[in-house]
Write the structure tokens for this entry.
Amino acid sequence: MPDTNSIEASGLVREFKGGIRAVDGIDLHVAPGEIYGFLGPNGAGKSTTVLMLTTLLPPTAGTATVAGFDVSSQGPQVRAAIGAALQEAALDNFLTGREHMDLQGGLQGLSRADRRARGTELLERVGLTEAADRKVGGYSGGMKRRLDLALALVHRPSILFLDEPTTGLDPGLEARMMQLLRELADGSRTVVLVTHGTASLALCDEVVVMGRGG
């Protein structure tokens, strides 16, 4: 069995209606503990690749394993091993940040005491302690990005997928986010980082440049 925090893909394809190939037969090997960057312009297939690797979109062809599990046939096992903060944060505007953390902790099977402690810890880590009891509908875009990252970390995943994690952050918060990403990539966690800019590439051990699906 592959390492439990590695990613492998062979000939991965995603084709949409009309024969449009968003991802055209890519091969990947992401080593355990590596920070792996996808770089490319909008429409290059970066986010589509991540959606397949996180089991949110089935491949048209090819194979992929994440944490040793097949993305097509072992989706629940993949999802249990990963955390993901993608382009569109699935947040409820009528819940507070703290309530989001409590809900996510409950879904991950944490006890009431553990999820409260974990929520407090992660909200502080992403700089949302003062906004923890405000409804998310009043959060800025950058605050929502940071809350989404905190939610992705609740269950201590071995693999973390981040799609444009610094979008919507001012320079000061972007620097804080970059520092947090350095701390998260401590060698025990594999991080896949999607970006169309170059600022975050200094974090990466390896970078693949994508264009028109591959």
The CA atoms of residues 131 and 139 lie 8 Å apart. The first helix runs from residue 46 to 53.
